[in-house]
Design brief:
The structure is a single chain. This protein is an alpha+beta fold. It contains six helices and 15 strands.
């Protein structure tokens, strides 16, 4: 809802008025079709009707409303009377300074804090009332046996009925105890919901951690099996049991500085049942179209027995054994 027109000092531009409440715009919002309304006016309308309040009646949702900051800043610079002008305050301040003024306005309503009074006065008169005029202000304690606080009104009347005062005091304590129990129950319920939420989050995190661990364990097992298979393949003898092997000598001519093959160190094969050793150096890769890839050349898994380099002819003569 907007601000009342009669609270402003001077005339207000009609463009600064809300078309719904016909007051000065408060927190203005604009629609996609260009109409501007108070936030407190247009939001309930859009939620209920789903359309623009203006005559266009264009379809509209709350998400499509936007703040008009330049217009809001302009309105905040208008001069406005204090909200407690009817109580006697004559101050006129900028609208943007109004909340600060209301916090300390001497003409704001204030309720007496003495139990049993409840009188509403001006803020500037409250302290004097509570100190000097309130009949509910304490002036001492009863000397007749109950020991309860004695108010100024009771003292002026010659005392109070201790039994009645004790019943009232007990009722006040019971009411306070009930309020504390209600607050404690509410806080316990909130704490219980929070605990359940935290337990659920912890369980979800533990489950996610377990699933992640299982995925990595599975990958680790797969990689380990693959590495073990590759190691056995590299370390296996060039021919299976019963297969014949033969030795041959090859002369390879370097091609652009490379002989066209890679080697790898071998180790004894655990599957070798006849006790023969397969430890040595083996051919692990042969480059296509390289010197080692020619007909009758090297093959993968061939074992290098001995190699010699002929410097003068830039050649190498490796002695290998392998399956053919």
């Amino acid at each position: 809802m907007g601000f009342e027109l009669d609270r402003f000092d001077g005339d207000v531009d009609p463009d600064l008025k809300c078309a719904l409440c016909h007051k000065v715009l408060e927190d203005p919002l604009t629609t996609p079709c260009g109409h501007v309304f108070c936030a407190g006016c247009v939001l309930p309308w859009v939620v209920q009707e789903g359309s623009c309040p203006a005559r266009c009646r264009g379809r509209l949702s709350a998400k499509e409303l936007n703040h008009v900051l330049p217009l809001k800043r302009l309105i905040l610079k208008l001069d406005i009377k204090c909200a407690h002008a009817a109580r006697g305050c004559s101050r006129v301040v900028k609208l943007q300074q109004l909340p600060e003024h209301l916090e300390r306005c001497d003409f704001a309503p204030a309720r007496c804090r003495h139990a049993g009074c409840g009188q509403v006065l001006l803020r500037r008169d409250l302290e004097a009332h509570m100190r000097d005029a309130c009949d509910a202000r304490p002036v001492g304690r009863c000397q007749e046996g109950c020991g309860l606080p004695l108010t100024h009104g009771e003292q002026r009347a010659g005392g109070h009925c201790c039994a009645r005062a004790l019943r009232a005091h007990n009722a006040a304590l019971q009411a306070r105890l009930g309020a504390l129990h209600k607050a404690l129950k509410k806080e316990a319920l909130r704490a219980g919901k929070r605990e359940k939420s935290l337990v659920a989050q912890l369980a979800a995190a533990q489950l996610e951690l377990q699933m992640t661990a299982l995925r990595y364990q599975k990958k680790f097992t797969e990689y380990s099996a693959r590495l073990d298979s590759l190691s056995r393949c590299v370390a296996a003898p060039p021919g299976g049991k019963g297969e014949e092997t033969k030795s041959l000598t090859l002369v390879l001519h370097r091609d652009s500085g490379s002989l066209g093959f890679n080697i790898i160190g071998g180790r004894p094969c655990v599957d070798n049942q006849d006790g023969s050793s397969t430890e040595g150096i083996f051919v692990s890769k042969i480059v296509d179209s390289g010197p080692a890839a020619k007909d009758g050349g090297l093959q993968i898994h061939d074992r290098i027995i001995e190699s010699q380099t002929l410097i003068e002819q830039n050649e190498v003569s490796p002695f290998v054994t392998g399956r053919r």
